[in-house]
## 1
Amino acid sequence: MEDIAYFDNSATTKPCENAVKKMNDSLNNNWGNPSSLYDMGLSAEREMYAARSAVAKTLSCRPDEVYFTSGGTEANNLAVFGAYRAGARRGNRIVTTSIEHPSVQNAAAELEKQGAEVVRLSPGSDGRVKAEDILAAVDKNTVLVSIMLANNETGAIQPVEAAAAAVKKTGAPALIHADCVQAFGKMPIRLDRIGADLITVSGHKIHGPKGIGALIKKKTARILPRAFGGGQESGLRPGTEASPLIAGLLGAVEALPDIPAQLKKIGELKAYTAERLLATGVVKINSPEDGLPYILNISVPGIRSETMLHFLEERRIYVSSGSACAKGKPSYVLREMGLPDDLADSAVRISFSRYNTEEQADRLVSAVSEAAAVLKHK
Ligand code: PLP
């Protein structure tokens, strides 16, 4: 049986050896409660601090600006609810986009039911929201601007830095939140440059375990907690820390290759794959050329996304139709970009990791080509 060719790394990634080793070590040998005052607690706390420092180093921020959560979803909810509630006396407007992950979109929709005024900006056909549109939507009542850095379906990079700089100039009390789940560990991000007050990251997109992520909160930003309990994570996210998962996140971050060098390699693999897919004559590319190269969204008009997905699955090649969270529903992101139905209904997301090879890409290309020949006439 042929090895799997896994091209769904934006849904989740294979945990790397170092992450698994660190988790095992935490579970077997370092399972004390990080809050305990004796040596076992201190040892667990030391590992947690190492993880905090490693995440901080990757984002050029301070370790005490890293708050561990159960993943990207919780960090996004904490950012949206926390910033809105902290700003309640100053305003009620939230500016976001129509292509955010559901964990931002649905959090904002929930606040809308409770009286927030939510402005959702649409992208252009390139998948990007314009910085000018964000600036135009921000008024003196705006308490939160939430915009993702790299879109999870197309890889389109959003103008977080430009928007943040523009918004800050308006003097609006808005905190800027950037969902960096797809970009973290894949492109260089510096908290001091990106201009965001809040950044979301997740472990399982970078070869760490599922169920761990972090909200990065600038020292100067104030948000309110969503949950109440002991004083862990400075009271912002109480609960006994998930030390085995935090150790796994540390393992994943430690094992990250040099980010710019890896970005270049993935860019080459994406170009290799895209070129060959286009040469089949049956593929259209939906991702913008200058998007995050880890994501390549394509369509094979005439073959529904799920049909293609299962055809590839039979050959042990794994991709997704839209995003993993959408579970087969047509992609709202592609529709927001104005993609015609035949392209939106046949879209497939190919997402790369450092474990993918050109040989795997060749298998993918010939299977897509075969699918077009076999399925189109059915
Ligand atoms: N934000 C984006 C852009 C994502 O792609 C995802 C996961 O797919 C999330 C947030 C949610 O992260 P998690 O799976 O860690 O809850």
Note: The pocket of pyridoxal-5'-phosphate is lined by residues 71-73, 76, 101, 103, 148, 152, 179, 181-182, 202, 204, 213, 325 (CB under 6 Å).
## 2
Amino acid sequence: MKASNRAALMAAVAAAALAAVLAGAAAGPPPPTPAVVDRAALAAQAREALLQAWRGYERYAWGHDELKPVSRTAHDWHRESLLMTPVDALDTLLLLGLKDEAARAQKLILEKLSFDRDISVKNFEITIRILGGLLSAYQATGDARFLSLAEDLGTRLLPAFSSPTGMPYMYVNLKTGKTSGARSNPAEIGTLLLEFGTLSKLTGKPVFYDKAKKALTALYERRSPIGLVGEEIDVETGKWLSPASHVGGGIDSYYEYLLKCGRLFGDADCERMWAESLRALNAHLADEAPSGLWYGQVDMTTGKRTASEFGALHAFLPGVLVLGGDLGHGRRLQESCFAMWNLHGIEPEVLDYRTMRVVSPAYPLRPEIIESAFYLHRSTKDPRYLEMGRTFFEGIRAHCRTDAGDTVLKSVVTKEKGDLMPSYYLAETLKYFYLLFSEEPVDLDKVVFNTEAHPLKRTW
Ligand code: DMJ
């Protein structure tokens, strides 16, 4: 552009800006500047919320899996407790400096936790919560008894991988090794390698890494020609049982682990699988709607749109996009998630983003939207994500609080309460709040959070 043209253009821009300012002045006062977020106060409140939640567990559910804060009773997943809440909460208690509470959790786990139980457990849930929790407890405390427990558990879970394809059965009996549940899904098959891989690195026994990697690869190899996976698959035949492709429950953390296993282990296969999957997600699931950018549902083979649903579980994706280097999509998708939250002052389990109507109204204290705000804030330092975090925190404290800890909502529309404090509320939701609000240093090149927010460190 010539200098004279550039000068004319700059004058026109300045005149337009001045006109806009004057027009604004004539129309009334400018919109209020959002109040500055007091990070220290919010971090202290997150710590206080953890303390209340933990005290509720100690008082009414000690030794059991989870607390039911409304009835002040306990919930166990199986006929014998696996101490789900103490194992899930321990590294959060340590991180937030609740030393006495952490010491009591540690003592309970080391004295009482045993896997010599005749119970059939969900391989995925036990891996992300208990195996992940024990491994991070070992890395945080250096107490070798946590690693022994982790190795015992990992060994008892190994029969799950005995299917003809190498993809794990959904259930395995901890005592007998009997498996069941050939009908599985990408999340349950592909969200195991961070934990099993770390177990191999820490014990020097490659079998755990190899089985979980084989399962992940077997699943990836069954992707469609356009690079997508479906919602359900038979682990014996390898045939897809549902072609619905999305990033919600049943698929979500499969993508998360492709990225994170590349980062934690430097595994080049995972890096390649993640890069190819990200391309397919952006090509086929990303959906520009009047309400913003979303990632919806398509048929895994044809790419044809089959639903415009997005919800609390899908909200992990902005964080994973940012961690994977796609800041542009991550930022825009988080804005959509924020709009979803603000519809009713707390997010629903599922929303139709074309009609903006709630499809499934529950809010089970999920962490994903907060986790994404944490990754976005660490990456951009943009105070917008602190403001989002404050909105999330205030919404939860306004609607989910009981005298004995926080509880799930049956409906974000009516705000009717349910009666459960899931263990991931202490492992994830409160941890990500604290990490978002505090200045706690976390080197995301060395620490990888598993899908239950247990930090795994590359110490090898
Ligand atoms: C957690 O157990 C994990 O984050 C999992 O990946 C999805 N479901 C819950 C939290 O919503």
Note: Residues 128, 253, 313, 366-367, 424, 428, 451-452 surround 1-deoxymannojirimycin (CB under 6 Å).
